Amino acid sequence: MPLIVKPTRQGSALGVKVVASQAEVPAAMVSAFSYDDGCCWSVRRGRELAVSVLGSEALPIVEAIPHESDVFDSSRYEIGRTRFVCPAELTAEDSIAVTETALRAYEALGCSGFSRVDVMLGAGGPEVLEVNAIPGLTDTSLLPQAAEAAGMEFEQLVERILELALQRAAAAVSP
User: Fold this and answer.
1) Which string of b and e fits 37-64 if b means at least 16 CB within 10 Å?
2) pTM above 0.90, yes or no
3) Number of separate helices (H) and strands (E) present in the chain
4) What is the DSSP letter of 134?
5) How is residue 49 annotated by DSSP?
6) Whose CA is closest to 71, among 27, 25, 130, 13?
7) What is the DSSP letter of 163?
8) 124-138, pLDDT tens digit by residue?
9) Is the peptide bond before 2 cis (omega within 30 degrees of 0)?
């Protein structure tokens, strides 16, 4: 303990519950099942990082640092409950390892256009937590924060996403 219970196929932190005791597990599972027909749990510890990928290029890494707990949960949707650092303050070695891990996951899953790869950086190195194939574009979303850190205005980000989609569509109909 603590355990992190999460819907198997649900993106972001929706349905994620942190349980501190065995007695809390059933309620956490019921919550997870309200989002999906499966759930998983984890005891990973480390720094919670997000690598947004645009085309085949990784944007600056974002670190999510929750204020009230040491786990990234649904508090990320409440402005002010999670601090985001972008670019994340990592050693050059860790930054390269996290970025390479994220790009390998993006490519292995056949992602295109844009996505976000969530990574836990622990003592054993980076581990992929999930790949969000359609990351959010809201005020609390990480992709726009990463794009801004890369010097890209929100409008430019949206234009680039549309360009990538049009390129993919054109390639699909070309002989």
Assistant:
1) eebeeeeeeebbbbbbbbeeebbbbbbb
2) no
3) 4, 9
4) S
5) E
6) 13
7) H
8) 999 998 899 889 898
9) yes
